[in-house]
Fold this protein.
Amino acid sequence: MHVEGLLRNKGAEVVTVEGSTTVADALQTMATRRVGALVVSADGSAVDGIVSERDVVWGLADRGAGLLGETVATIMTRDVVTCGMATTVDQLSTMMTEGRMRHVPVVVDGALAGIVSIGDVVKDRLRELEAETQSLHEYISHGR
Ligand code: AMP
């Protein structure tokens, strides 16, 4: 399966915030939209950075509660690892494992086209394993 297939199932929507958004507002957005990371973008298309719940936890441990009034630009990761529509789920697994990240934005022609999370990758792997198990059962029971 490729990223294109994953997005066909989950849709292309990406929750974004501007770099000037406060950490408190970003947390509110994560909570109401039920996501663990936000792409930081000034125009909703170019990827300026990514901020995840982990950045908030690390920032709070480092700077204390005052962090909530600061902007996401102060804690976001600027060097964002992205993928394209042709990236495979296996490649995504490697990227996420080696980079220790659970979110990878999808970029097509320089524009944000979706986001995949480790949950999407695990879901696809489970689907694949179930299909394999099913065909092995059929082979064992009916020889085909
Ligand atoms: P996560 O596991 O996605 O919650 O993020 C863990 C750390 O990796 C945080 O510092 C994120 O800002 C960063 N991060 C998340 N996704 C990416 C990405 N696609 N590229 C680079 N850094 C990322």
Q: What stands out?
A: The domain at 3-117 is CATH 3.10.580.10 (CBS-domain). The mean pLDDT is 96.
